[in-house]
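Dear support,

I submitted the protein below through the web form. The confirmation email said the job was done, but the results page showed an empty box. After a refresh the structure appeared. I'm attaching both so you can tell me whether what I see now is the final result or a partial one.
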Amino acid sequence: MVTPVTGFFELLDSLAAFEVEIVAESAGPIEGASGLSIAAHRAVSEVARTDVVIVPSMEPGDGDWVAGRYPRLVSWMRRMHAGGATVCAACTGALLVAETGLLDGHDVTVHWICESQFRRRHPEITLRMDEVLVVSGEGGRLVTSGVATAWHDMVLYLIARYAGPATAQDVARFQLMNWHRDGQAAFQVFDPPDDHGDAAILAAQRWLAEHHAVASPVDEMVRRSGLPQRTFKRRFKSATDCTPIAYVQRVRVERAKRLLETSSEPIEEISWAVGYEDPASFRRLFKRITGLTPGAYRQRFRLPDLPHVSSR
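What the results page shows now:
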């Protein structure tokens, strides 16, 4: 993805504390996922030492990351880190950095859209999906950020670290950049797997999508499946990586998020509409899952009115 690359480059290159280059497996044009091109100044084989390595968002391909595509980059990052460099991964760039082994045993964050495949590929790495920016490793030399626009948090962190907090604040003010202090939980969309091959669980998922507000939905899913309760719960957890009750909660909160974004209904009525008779319990659950109260979520994510066209 080109935008984080150009954003990182232009911001850091404008400051005297940084000397910035774009490097790749070979020098020359690089085409991003959108078709836009940028030019790599040098090949990594020409760079013997650096203080900071930043891996931008990476295009996973056809929905899944293919490991082993960039062996020279992986080897180079290992050498740079061994020489003292801080290695940073923005968004899905963590999928590439994870191949180095540098992240093993450490806390990281990634874009929520690749959470499941990251966990599957790298169970030895601790994901902190509630965080937008995670600094870990000896000397804080591993830095990861979540969704693509969280590169703002990463670049401001690097500016504060190497040029000073006052400079970072000046850049943020001039560029209208904000730290995502509430984390990325509120931005995540619950997108459970449906390609697990368990027909009984898939039928339960599809039924729940239309009937999430009914009373005792877990009991009803068990009854409709025809399976013993313990068998159903075991198979449901295996297929979706959620317990049935946690899955119900995520589906209900996701529906509540859409209602908060698109309607002016009171929060109490939204609570009832998604299946919770006690609005206080709904508020606690909503904040636990999203990191925001329903009111704060509505304030941040409600669809804005389009500006009026001036006749003057």
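Response: this is the final, complete result; the empty box was a page-load delay. The CA atoms of residues 17 and 163 lie 6 Å apart.
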